[in-house]
């Protein structure tokens, strides 16, 4: 019947084709899922993929929201892609995101209520530093003690969540908040607010940073020696040693930069869309960004596009829930299918399918 | 053929538009959990269904479940308002600031935020005096525990939850001076896996009563599996675990409030208010006390319920000391609502600290 034959080399064509195929299969399977729930599948798919961009009553609001949602995903995923290319697996971006937010918000709250143009730049530096330091822990442990960075970075997410809960109720708690947990709302503090650069565009400073990062990482990966070192380490670790790549420096670079970018994403979120540090501040960007990175083939432009696509499924998924009364779990299932089918279609990059019973 | 189907489609969509126009008021609900949690969100959704049934075609309702607290909820509320909702109920504490933010952008839409303290001209707040039900739970727990260890699954250390712990503890100690509370904080409203782990850990520590301030039935299932442990339905009756482990429950009955507020919007009489109702007005219900509870304990519990309902008894009546031994309420003094709303301390006898 069908037979899989390993390709001598990865098929470049399939590497770029499989994300599109995965999206297509997700639409079809999702459509079947929605049909079994008693909804018109074409309408559901249209609401998820089309209406957030073009519906006359929603688009003017949801188009900017697309950027708000995609910004942090792109920023984090770009950072992760450096490590993933080098075989350094940072699964703990969620924790680095939290620490960046805490560091950034701490700087703002330390200066409150002073108004100064210097506060926001300081917060940006603090946010990047917070994420960087949190990413440095698994990096140094791996470099010095050869621990597994997947486990260490993931476990540190839970540590970060505990720190978040603690500062929400203690150190950063709003003194005017009647004892309820949560910090002051930074949106109401002009010097610290991450505002939209152009009104009603969704384009806040974090989104701008994300776009700049896309360009920079493209340059580093294609033109800079560090980009070459990263790819070499991932593809041929032994060869990279002969080429003089310092493995420790490489690990620190990969985890440090992904930590710093995740920290920046957290800082821009806490000072912008979220506004305050709360116990429930993190909502999974750090984990979703892993999907974004792989869906984008670890390529800066790919990540840019996949970040927008995932953001679209979130916003469109919410609309579908609202307009059709679809259960929330069906939307989560739909998003899960995307990663599932991506992994499935990646098979074709490494294997050829032969039809027939020939041995 | 093609033209035909286009016309048919146009007519169909006109029909939908006409149906939407037929409803005088559109009411939206934002839920933190799934409607099938059989706890907090389930009861809010029962309230929504009651609104639909009461008003029929005059009112249309929409809802969104599993909405994370924070920036995402702001978008969900905005989309609801854009979709034409006239009244939006946001049913979790963490929606407070987002509700205020969205309300500023839509001055003509009315908002109702559950369990918060921030109001505006178009934002009301409402909550229920769950601590009244906790007093009855504490009484039954204190009477029935054999190990003298009561486990308590806390969600977030906010005043509402701390208040419930204090109320349950005071009434358990009153009937059983040896009772101890083991409190664990899991920092989520709804996570069946975490809730089950917490319940199992408490049972392994020797607790034979498990109280929960989380929304799923997972602790009930864990108690049923362990055997010999009693629990109470939280936010909803959780009747499927009767008669053991679930021996009673606190039921949030939002339906009358939701119907009244929708009516106010229909009549044009809606104003921003702050509502905090308990057993008396019927916002807090006590679910059936099962045969697993001895008859005399049941009778005492029901007597306490009646006394609270009539206003003869306040669950926070002095003498009550704070954890550090300082006097909070003198003999006969009752707590004022302001202190209760901001409660961030344990009463005397509870071990451990409110997480800070």
Question: What is the compact description of this entry?
Answer:
The complex is a heterodimer of chains A (359) and B (356). With 359 residues, chain A is mostly helical.
CATH superfamily grouping of the largest domain in chain B: Response regulator
Give the mean pLDDT of chain B.
91
The SSE string of chain A, one letter per element, is EHHHHHHHHHHHHHHHE
The pLDDT mean of chain A sits at 90
CATH architecture of the largest domain in chain B: 3-Layer(aba) Sandwich
- Briefly note the structural class of the backbone of chain B: alpha/beta
- Described by the principal axes of the CA atoms, the overall outline of chain B is globular
Low-confidence stretches of chain A: none
* Global Rg of chain B: 22 Å
What is the number of beta strands of chain B?
Answer: 14
Quaternary structure: heterodimer
Count of folded domains of chain B? 2
Tell me which protein chains meet in the greatest interface and how many residues each side has.
A-B, 40 and 36 residues
Q: Main beta sheet of chain B: strand number and arrangement?
A: 6 strands, parallel
Order of helices and strands of chain B: HEHEHEHEEHEHEHEHEEHEEHEEH
Spatial order of the strands in the main sheet of chain B?
2-1-3-4-5-11
Rg value of chain A: 22 Å
Shape descriptor of chain A: globular
Global structural class of chain A: mainly alpha
Proportion of beta-strand residues of chain A: under 5%
Q: What topology does this entry show?
A:
The complex is a heterodimer of chains A (359) and B (356).
Chain A lengths: L1 E5 L5 H25 L4 H9 L1 H4 L4 H28 L6 H19 L7 H27 L3 H21 L35 H19 L1 H11 L1 H6 L4 H25 L13 H11 L4 H25 L3 H18 L1 H4 E5 L4
Antiparallel strand pairs in A: 1-2
Helix pairs in contact in A: 1-2, 1-14, 2-13, 4-8, 4-9, 4-11, 4-12, 4-13, 5-6, 5-7, 5-11, 5-12, 6-7, 6-11, 8-9, 8-13, 12-13, 13-14
Chain B lengths: L1 H21 L2 E6 L9 H16 L3 E6 L6 H12 L4 E4 L5 H10 L4 E5 L8 E6 L1 H15 L4 E6 L4 H17 L4 E6 L6 H13 L4 E4 L5 H9 L3 E4 L12 E7 L2 H13 L6 E4 L6 E4 L7 H16 L9 E2 L5 E3 L7 H5 L15
Parallel strand pairs in B: 1-2, 1-3, 3-4, 4-5, 5-11, 6-7, 6-8, 8-9, 9-10
Antiparallel strand pairs in B: 10-12, 13-14
Helix pairs in contact in B: 2-9, 3-4, 5-6, 5-10, 7-8
């Amino acid at each position: 019947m069908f037979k899989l034959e390993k390709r001598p080399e990865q098929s470049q064509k399939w590497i770029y084709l499989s994300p599109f195929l995965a999206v297509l299969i997700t639409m079809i399977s999702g459509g079947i899922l929605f049909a079994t729930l008693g909804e018109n599948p074409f309408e559901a798919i249209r609401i998820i993929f089309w209406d957030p961009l073009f519906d006359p009553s929603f688009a003017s609001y949801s188009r900017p929201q697309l950027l708000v949602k995609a910004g942090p995903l792109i920023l984090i995923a770009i950072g992760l892609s450096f490590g993933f290319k080098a075989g350094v697996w940072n699964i703990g971006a969620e924790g680095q995101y939290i620490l960046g937010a805490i560091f950034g918000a701490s700087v703002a709250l330390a200066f409150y209520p002073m108004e100064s143009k210097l506060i926001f730049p300081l917060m940006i530096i603090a946010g990047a530093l917070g994420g960087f330091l949190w990413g440095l822990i698994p990096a140094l442990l791996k470099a010095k003690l050869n621990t597994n960075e997947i486990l260490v970075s993931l476990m540190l997410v839970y540590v970060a969540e505990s720190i978040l809960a603690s500062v929400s109720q203690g150190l950063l708690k709003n003194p005017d908040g009647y004892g309820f947990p949560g910090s002051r709302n930074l949106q109401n503090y002009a010097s610290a607010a991450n505002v939209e650069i152009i009104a009603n565009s969704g384009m806040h400073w974090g989104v701008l940073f994300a776009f700049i990062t896309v360009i920079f990482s493209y340059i580093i990966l294609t033109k800079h020696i560090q980009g070459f070192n990263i790819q070499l380490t991932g593809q041929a670790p032994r060869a990279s040693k002969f080429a003089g790549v310092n493995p420790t420096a490489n690990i620190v670079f990969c985890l440090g930069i992904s930590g710093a970018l995740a920290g920046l994403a957290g800082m821009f979120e806490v000072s912008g869309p979220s506004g305050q540090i709360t116990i429930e501040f993190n909502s999974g960007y750090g984990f979703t960004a892993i999907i974004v990175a792989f869906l984008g083939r670890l390529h800066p432009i790919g990540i840019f596009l996949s970040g927008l696509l995932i953001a679209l499924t979130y916003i469109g998924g919410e609309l579908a829930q609202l307009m059709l009364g679809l259960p929330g779990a069906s939307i989560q299932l739909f998003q899960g299918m995307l990663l599932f089918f991506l992994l499935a279609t990646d098979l074709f990059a490494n294997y050829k399918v032969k039809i027939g019973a020939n041995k | 053929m093609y033209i035909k189907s286009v016309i048919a489609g146009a007519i169909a969509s006109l029909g939908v538009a006409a149906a939407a126009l037929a409803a005088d008021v559109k009411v939206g609900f934002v839920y933190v959990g799934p409607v099938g949690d059989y706890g907090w969100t389930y009861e809010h959704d029962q309230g929504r269904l009651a609104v639909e049934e009461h008003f029929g075609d005059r009112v249309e309702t929409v809802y969104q479940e599993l909405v994370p607290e924070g920036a995402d909820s702001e978008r969900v509320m905005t989309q609801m308002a854009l979709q034409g909702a006239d009244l939006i109920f946001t049913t979790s504490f963490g929606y407070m600031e987002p509700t205020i933010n969205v309300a500023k952008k839509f001055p003509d839409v009315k908002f109702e935020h559950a369990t918060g303290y921030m109001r505006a001209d178009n934002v009301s707040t409402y909550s229920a005096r769950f601590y009244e039900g906790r007093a009855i739970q504490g009484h039954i727990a204190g009477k029935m525990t054999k190990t003298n260890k009561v486990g308590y699954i806390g969600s977030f250390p906010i005043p509402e939850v701390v208040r419930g712990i204090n109320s349950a503890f005071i009434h358990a100690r009153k009937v059983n001076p040896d009772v101890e509370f083991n409190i664990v904080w899991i920092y989520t409203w709804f996570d069946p896996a975490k809730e089950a782990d917490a319940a199992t850990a408490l049972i392994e520590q020797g607790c034979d009563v498990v109280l929960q301030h989380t929304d799923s039935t997972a602790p009930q299932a864990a108690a049923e599996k362990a055997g010999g442990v009693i629990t109470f339905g939280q936010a909803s009756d959780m009747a499927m675990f009767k008669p053991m482990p679930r021996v009673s429950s606190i039921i949030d009955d939002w339906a009358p409030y939701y119907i009244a507020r929708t009516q106010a919007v229909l009549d044009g009489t809606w104003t921003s208010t702050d509502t905090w109702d308990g057993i008396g007005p019927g916002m807090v219900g006590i679910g059936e006390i099962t045969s697993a509870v001895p008859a005399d304990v049941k009778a005492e519990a029901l007597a306490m319920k009646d006394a609270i309902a009539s206003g003869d008894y306040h669950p926070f009546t002095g003498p009550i000391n704070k954890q550090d031994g300082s006097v909070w309420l003198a003999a006969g003094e009752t707590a004022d609502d302001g202190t209760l709303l901001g409660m961030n301390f344990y009463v005397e006898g509870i071990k451990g600290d409110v997480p800070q």
